[in-house]
Design a protein that fits this description.
With 377 residues, the protein is α/β, with parallel strands linked by helices. The protein is built from eleven helices and ten strands. Helix 3 crosses helix 4 and helix 9 crosses helix 11. The longest helix has 19 residues. The radius of gyration is 22 Å and the shape is globular. The relative contact order is 0.10. The structure holds zinc ion. The site of zinc ion (ZN) has 4 residues, from loops. The site of zinc ion has 4 residues, from loops. GO terms for molecular function: N-acetylmuramoyl-L-alanine amidase activity. One of its GO terms (biological process) is peptidoglycan catabolic process.
C-alpha cells in the first residue's frame, strides 16, 4: 500500500482492503463530469458506484486518496489489473458536467506533483503510454481497453493540457531519468465485472443517463422508487445520475417487457413518459429577471420574491457549488445569495467590483452549464 503524502487520506472501504494488489505501471487521468470536491467524490464512490479511482482532485487543486496505489481501483476497465499483475493508478478531477472545461492552474499543478511522485515511488516511465498496457502516463480516452468500449473522458481541452502542460511539467520536474519499471508475475485476474451503460440521451431538451444532473434526475429516481424499482439505491435518489439509477431504470424497462439494449437502463421517450406521466421540460432562467431580483430583493422586506422560481434555480446551483447554505434556497435574491454569487464570480476569476454578486451573462451562463439550466436574455 502506498499513500501519496500530498493527498488527504480518505480510505474507501471495503475496496481498500478487499481488492487485489497491483504493481502500478500507469497513471491515467479522468474528468468526473461534476464540479465536485475530493470529499464529494469520496461520498459518491462510498455510496453510489464501485467504479472508483485512487485519487480525486477538486477545482482548487486539493486532492484526496481513497485507495493505496498498490491496490486495484476500477475506473480503467482492462487496465485496472492485468494478467501479469500490473495495473493503472487513476485520478478523477472536478469538471463541468460535459467535461469540456480545461483544468484550472491549481489542478494542473497538483497533477504534475502527483505525476512526479508516481515516477519516484513506482518508477512510472516519463512518457505517454504507447499501447494500452505500456507503462507511462495517459488520459482515459487514449485507449478503448481503458473503458467499456470507448469514452469521451476527458474533453479536448484537458487532452491538450495533458500533452502540453501536465506531462512536460512532470518530465521537467522529475529529472534524473526514468527508473526501471517493476514487473512481478502474479496469478490470473478475476473475471471481468458486469458493465453498466454509461452513455447519455437527450429527451425533451434534458439529458438522462450516467453523469446527467438536475431536478429531472431526482424526479426520475423518486418515480422509480414509487413504482418499486429502487432496490439498487444505497442512498438517494438525488440530482446526479449514477450507476444505481441506470440499474433501477433497467429493472423498470424489463418490467415493460424490454430486453437487450432496450433494457440497458438508459431512458427512451416512451418508457420515460410512462414512468412520469409527462416529459420534464428544461429549466430556463432569464438574465433580466434575475438581475431585476438582485436589484429589488435585498432592499425589500426579508424574504421578498421577484421571479422566485428562477431565483430558486440559481440558488440551488450555488448550493451545489458549495457556496450557499441550503436554508437560503427560498426564491428571494437577498444578501446571502448575492454574497454567494460574488463567490462564484471570484471562482471564475472576477476581481474587485467585477465580483459584485450581480449576475452577468457570462457568469450566469457558466453556472447554467454546470448545473443544468439555460439562460435567456
Ligand atoms: Zn474517465
Amino acid at each position: 500500500m502506498a499513500w501519496y503524502p500530498g493527498a488527504e487520506r480518505m480510505e474507501l472501504q471495503p475496496e481498500s482492503d478487499g481488492q487485489p494488489a497491483i504493481v502500478p505501471t500507469q497513471l491515467i487521468l479522468h474528468s468526473i463530469a461534476a464540479p465536485w470536491t475530493p470529499q464529494r467524490i469520496f461520498e459518491y464512490w462510498r455510496d453510489s458506484t464501485n467504479l472508483e479511482s485512487h485519487f480525486g482532485l477538486g477545482y482548487d487543486g486539493a486532492i484526496a486518496q481513497y485507495i493505496g496505489t498498490q491496490t486495484r481501483a476500477d475506473a480503467n476497465m482492462y487496465a485496472n489489473r492485468r494478467p501479469d499483475g500490473t495495473g493503472a493508478v487513476s485520478v478523477e478531477s472536478a469538471s463541468n458536467l460535459q467535461h469540456t472545461d480545461p483544468w484550472t492552474d491549481a489542478q494542473v499543478e497538483t497533477l504534475i506533483r502527483l505525476g512526479v511522485w508516481m515516477h519516484q515511488q513506482h518508477g512510472i516511465p516519463l512518457r505517454v503510454c504507447r499501447t494500452w498496457d505500456d507503462p507511462g502516463y495517459g488520459y482515459h480516452r487514449l485507449f478503448p481497453q481503458w473503458s467499456d468500449g470507448g469514452t469521451a473522458c476527458p474533453g479536448d481541452a484537458r487532452v491538450r493540457q495533458f500533452l502540453e502542460a501536465v506531462l512536460p511539467g512532470i518530465v521537467a520536474r522529475a529529472g534524473g531519468g526514468p527508473l526501471p519499471t517493476p514487473r512481478t508475475p502474479t496469478p490470473p485476474p478475476p473475471a471481468p465485472e458486469p458493465a453498466v451503460a454509461r452513455y447519455q440521451v437527450t429527451i425533451g431538451g434534458l439529458v438522462y443517463g450516467y453523469g446527467a444532473h438536475g431536478p429531472h434526475v431526482r424526479e426520475v429516481g423518486e418515480a422509480l422508487v414509487a413504482h418499486g424499482f429502487g432496490t439498487h439505491y444505497r442512498s438517494g435518489p438525488d440530482e446526479d445520475w449514477r450507476d444505481p439509477d441506470t440499474l433501477n431504470y433497467a429493472d423498470y424497462q424489463r418490467s415493460l417487457g424490454y430486453s437487450g439494449a432496450d433494457a440497458d437502463g438508459v431512458p427512451g421517450e416512451s418508457s420515460l413518459r410512462g414512468l412520469l406521466g409527462h416529459l420534464p421540460a428544461p429549466r430556463v432562467v432569464s438574465l433580466a429577471h434575475v438581475r431585476a431580483a438582485a436589484r429589488t430583493d435585498p432592499g425589500a422586506e426579508q424574504g421578498h420574491r421577484t421571479y422566485g422560481d428562477e431565483v430558486r434555480i440559481v440558488e440551488q446551483a450555488l448550493v451545489d457549488e458549495g457556496l450557499l447554505d441550503p436554508v437560503w434556497v427560498d426564491g428571494s435574491l437577498g444578501t446571502r445569495t448575492i454574497e454567494a454569487y460574488a463567490g462564484f464570480q471570484r471562482r471564475l476569476g472576477y476581481q474587485g467590483a467585477q465580483a459584485d454578486g450581480i449576475p452577468g451573462q457570462r457568469s450566469l451562463t457558466e453556472l447554467g452549464d454546470r448545473h443544468g439550466f439555460t439562460v435567456t436574455d
